[in-house]
From TrEMBL:
GO terms for cellular component: plasma membrane. This is Putative MFS family arabinose efflux permease. The keyword Membrane applies. It is a multi-pass membrane protein. SUPFAM superfamilies: MFS general substrate transporter.
Amino acid sequence: MTARADAQDTTATPSTAPRPRIWSRDLALVWVVNFCLALTFYGLVTVMAVYAVTRFAVSDSTGGLAASIFVVGATVARLFAGGLVDRIGRRRVLWVGLLACTAVAALYLVASSLPALLVVRALHGVLFAGTSTAAMTLAQARIPASRRSEGTGYFALSITLSTAVGPFLSLEIVEGSGYDPLFWALLVVHVVACGLALLVSTKGEPAGHRTRRTRPGFRGVLRTMVHPAVLPIGLFILVIGSVYSSIVTYLNSYTAQEGLERGASLFFVAYALVMFVSRFVMGRLQDRRGDNVVVYSAVVVFAGALALLGTASADWMIVATGALTGFGFGTINPACQAAAVARVSQDEFGVAISTFFLMLDGGVGLGPVVLGLLAERTGYATMFLVLAAVMVASAGLYAAVHGRRPEARRGRAVVT
């Protein structure tokens, strides 16, 4: 079935028909599995640089490599993960990937040199990308098309919660017991995820995934790595990821410079709370009113957050920036992911999701490099004000690559 046919089926739903359920046993299982995956990622990235410095007596910059090389491995793997998931099967890639992640998690306990640790981190990043792509593809296949945005927002909460729980638990374990107990705890988390993945049914797996062949030639190979239908909105999310990375990277330095450290300590609390609440509202609105009403409003709010940050003179303004960013970026991300998946047929969900996150990760990775040069020349405050203008301009980019499409102007669900 094509994406167009899928969309026609949903819009043809009679207004008297009950709305399909979002949650199912399988979706709940995959939600927990994805939470476990993200929990280990955020739990390790929080302490890995300090661990490398303490364990191997290296410089801070070298220790930072132990944290960032995971992302490098994951970004490279995104090029191949989606096609692999679509060809081999979502559930199979999920379980094999989890099994491999569990084996790699055990290697943290025996990595006795910095080169060994770097290899483990890079390999973990590669496996994380493939496994998380399979989990998200399984989830999308189980979310009703007419409630795609709402369901995507709910599923994305598995990552939102892990960003708060993972660092908190890892720091508590390290401070109380040391690094080895943390590695053992995360190994147990992987084992639990493996067991839960075995309970996920094969429902929704494309019947021909085992025999599907890549189209001949360079274009056929490229299509298994990057889906052309997702690239337009991927370009928009690359810009959004670059802008968001400026806050994550330079917030602490900026607030320390301005004497607003207390506000910075509450920034991500406000960010997480508003993001959590907005997921229960904006996804449903997107399904009923279309992509545009949600994305444009989130772009305006995100631009306002950057403008407020660039002019901040009190702690409350930093906290307010966190709340506005939680609504802005926290809404744009799942909204565009749902729009990207809606552009392809079900048997191409894997490559669509990997393309989306390849562009997002690319923006988050490149943003600090480019924006760091801008901050050196203009200062942090001016940089944030410039990025507020970039966000306003990004609305035009969104309109060009997606906003003018008919499906972006109308909802997927019929109001009952």
